[in-house]
Amino acid sequence: MRHLLDTRTLGREESILILDTAEDMAAAQQREVKKLPALRGKTVVNLFFEDSTRTRISFEAAAKRLSADVINFSAKGSSVSKGESLKDTAQTLQAIGADGVVIRHPSSGAPERLARTGWIDAGVLNAGDGTHEHPTQALLDAFTMRRRLFGRHSRGRDLDGVSVVIVGDIAHSRVARSNLWLLRALGARVSFVAPETLLPYGSRAWPVAVHHSLDEALRVERPEVVMMLRIQSERMHAAFFPNEREYARNWGLDDARLARLREDAIVMHPGPMNRGLEISSRAADSERSTVLEQVANGVSVRMAALYLLLSGERAGGAAAPEPPQRGDTDHRGGDA
């Protein structure tokens, strides 16, 4: 891979390669010494123009566990707050020798612009751009689904035939978009559930079943996976539903709906959760919930993505490097 900008252009084989490489990374994290020397000498810059906790920390941990040098950049307090352009920022990163740039930006398309303009030679990894995509979130979600549904020995498997219902603020959710394209590539059957006001323009033409009633969707789709989305109030500049109580009553995963799920169904949420709005505390904390697993799996998946982007030859079309072997551990330790 030269860059990882979206999941829409990821095929089945490339997606499974990332998930299988993440399995190797997860196995390495079970050892006493968690670090691998795979990216020693590489510099990874976390370039965050939006606030983040889980994603930024996860990428930092992933890069450090691969022995890369990590530079954390926040727009707040930097020259960006003084009006510096993305181009000038990119050229600064080029000058300091960045090998990989993990970028989160409020504008859809910013990571692709960074990757395609020639401003920088580094590999670019999209950590969320506007309402467009968040590819590593979708990959960690798929990784979590595969492990929960098929066990830890699921190497090489896709999600063929798995029913996934994604519920909530689809209109503002880059997570929903990335999951749709990735899960479709892996053979899953995807459904969206939302009020009409929270569906994005043009979504009727997407390869997805659309429901306005959560109860109907649970009855018709019989999902193995129910993914609840956060209501993104910070992106809303109008009233998209009457009030929180009505939203929770119609589209929230409450205790009664949790009890009606099929016996083997799992509950997912990308976080942060609004308990009592899109999901009840019982659902969030139940044995069905994968919320904390998603966070833990995010480190392994982001290790895999960084490894495949930055190790080996960087020429376009080059074969992916072999994943770390069981004994390939950096015994010198260091920051993890």
UniProtKB/TrEMBL annotation:
It catalyses: carbamoyl phosphate + L-aspartate = N-carbamoyl-L-aspartate + phosphate + H(+). Its EC number is 2.1.3.2. Residues 315-336 are annotated as: Disordered. Carbamoyl phosphate binds at R54, T55, R104, H134, Q137, G271, P272. PROSITE patterns: CARBAMOYLTRANSFERASE. L-aspartate binds at K82, R174, R230. Pfam families: OTCace, OTCace_N. Pathway: Pyrimidine metabolism; UMP biosynthesis via de novo pathway; (S)-dihydroorotate from bicarbonate: step 2/3. One of its GO terms (molecular function) is aspartate carbamoyltransferase activity. Residues 160-309 form the Aspartate/ornithine carbamoyltransferase Asp/Orn-binding domain. Residues 2-146 form the Aspartate/ornithine carbamoyltransferase carbamoyl-P binding domain. It is an enzyme of class 2 (transferase). InterPro entries: Asp/Orn_carbamoyltranf_P-bd (IPR006132), Asp/Orn_carbamoylTrfase (IPR006130), Asp/Orn_carbamoylTrfase_sf (IPR036901), Asp_carbamoyltransf (IPR002082), Asp_carbamoyltransf_Asp/Orn-bd (IPR006131). Heterododecamer (2C3:3R2) of six catalytic PyrB chains organized as two trimers (C3), and six regulatory PyrI chains organized as three dimers (R2). Belongs to the aspartate/ornithine carbamoyltransferase superfamily. ATCase family. This is Aspartate carbamoyltransferase. It comes from Leucobacter allii. The lineage of its organism: Bacteria, Bacillati, Actinomycetota, Actinomycetes, Micrococcales.
